[in-house]
Amino acid sequence: MFSKDILILTRTSLQCRECKKEYDTAFKYICDECFGPLDVKYNFPKLTKDTFSNRGHTYWRYFELLPIENKSNIVSIGAGMTPLIKADNLGKKLGLNNLYIKNDSVNPTFSFKDRPAGVAISKAKEFGLSAVGCASTGNLASATAAHAAKAGLPCHVFAPSNLEMAKITQALSYGANYIAVDGTYDDANRIAAQIGDSKGIGIVNINMRSHYVEGSKTFSFEVAEQLDWQVPDQLIIPVGSGAMLNAICKGFEELQTVSLLDDISNMHMIAAQPHGCAPIVDAFKKNSKEVIPVEHPDTIAKSLAIGDPGDGRYVLKRLAQYNGFAEECNNKEILDAILLLARTEGIFTEPAGGVSISVLQKMVEQGKIDKNDRVVCYVTGNGLKATESIMEVLQKPKVMKANIEEISAVVN
Ligand SMILES: *Cc1c(COP(=O)(O)O)cnc(C)c1O
Ligand SMILES: [Zn+2]
């Protein structure tokens, strides 16, 4: 742990999201006064668009806006700066002239979780922790395990036992101690929280959460830079715990604070959840400020199967603040959307990405998006992680004899 005199030199502090009390940066995530979550607050240096333009193609190009004091503590496996694709084919189908897909399915561990996990593991290294871990709906397990491997730290993964085999295989391959909990994500999360605190393990999305969420801000930094520092009109974001949506808002706000973006108050934040685990959509539609947990999530979008979303309340606030909406889609709609994206743009996503695309479609149908709006749809994970569920709507190829006439007959 840091000594007091080192702390004085830090360029960040922690601030309670509720009562605004400030703390020195430390391995700490809850306010002593009111138990509110702690967010990272910065003393920003002077930044210009040119500050970033000649740097490496990872999200660490935004170092000044991330909560690591010393660059030597960065643990990077090359994540970030993923493509922002102008989706003209899909746009044409939907009647949109300025549709962009932020394609995070091509990160090193094949989901956006490399963003928060990489920042959290770097901070764990900076704090001098001797082990890390996470509670995961699948993708975070791989992202944490891969970055832990790079950092040379042991990694403990707590996950519900019903996850896709690809996600389990991946995390095990990176060398994680994988604990498959017979229960829901919320059960795994509760156990991870207790073990993390009692053993001093840096659980990236629980006791490291203040720093973890900062990584997802890079989703705003990259989109802003890739749009040549113009503010998007509509952002469609898949929501599980809600940490990402909240962080994306924080990221855009910080860009406005340092004068890299103009007024962001006209952005529209759209939260997308799967039917069967859509507690935030339910609350939004009832105009309620309270998110009622889903006890037994039931959806093929396992990455989003968080019944009791930690940042649910804050997502509702963000939707109110940024002219937002929340919408859900069912399993069939998710699978249709996966194929639609794959067949128009050549991008293969897992069900969470299908949720974004399906909700995008619904927003257009409901007249919530204008055809000339600058729309950014976040595709957060790779289809190879969930082939079992996607294969259900595809025809398994029939094995044929290597006979020219027979095969020629089916090539029309
Ligand atoms: C975790 C995850 C999400 C949801 O992120 P939250 O911060 O939990 O809201 C979305 N998409 C994918 C692919 C994920 O793995
Ligand atoms: Zn507080």
Coarse shape: globular
Estimate the mean pLDDT confidence. Answer: 96
The CATH topology label of the largest domain is Rossmann fold
State the CATH class of the largest domain. Answer: Alpha Beta
Helix content: 25-40%
Count structural domains: 3
Going by helix content, strand content and strand pairing, the class is alpha/beta
What spatial order of strands do you see in the largest sheet? 4-5-13-10-11-12
Query: Biggest sheet, in brief?
Result: 6 strands, mixed
Q: At CATH's second level, what is the architecture of the largest domain? A: 3-Layer(aba) Sandwich
Give structural notes.
This protein is of the alpha/beta class and 412 residues long. It folds into three domains: 1-43, no CATH class; 84-110 and 214-391, Rossmann fold (3-Layer(aba) Sandwich), CATH 3.40.50; 112-212, Rossmann fold (3-Layer(aba) Sandwich), CATH 3.40.50. Helices cover 38% and strands 15% of the residues. It has 16 helices and 13 strands. The strands form three sheets. A six-stranded mixed β-sheet has the order 4-5-13-10-11-12, with helices on both faces. Strands 8-7-6-9 form a four-stranded parallel β-sheet, sandwiched between helices. α4 runs parallel beside α5 (139-151), α4 (114-127) crosses α8 and α9 packs across α10 (243-257). The longest helix has 15 residues, at 185-199. The site of pyridoxal-5'-phosphate (PLP) has 16 residues, from α10.
